[in-house]
Specification:
This protein has 47 residues and is mainly α. The protein has 1 helix and no strands. This is LamG-like jellyroll fold domain-containing protein.
């Protein structure tokens, strides 16, 4: 993000502990289940 002067600011200062790439749009119910599940998943990419 940039402030009103065009200077970059608001950098992320943390860790990402769950990252997924889906091959389709997920439903709100699926998204809520992932968010509220509290546990990660193993890589299922097959590679």
């Amino acid at each position: 993000a940039r402030n009103s002067n065009g200077t970059p600011n608001g950098f992320w200062d943390g860790l990402i502990d769950d990252f997924r790439i889906m091959d389709r749009v997920i439903t709100a119910t699926e998204r809520a289940g992932i968010y509220n599940g509290g546990s990660g998943t193993e890589d299922q990419s097959g590679g």
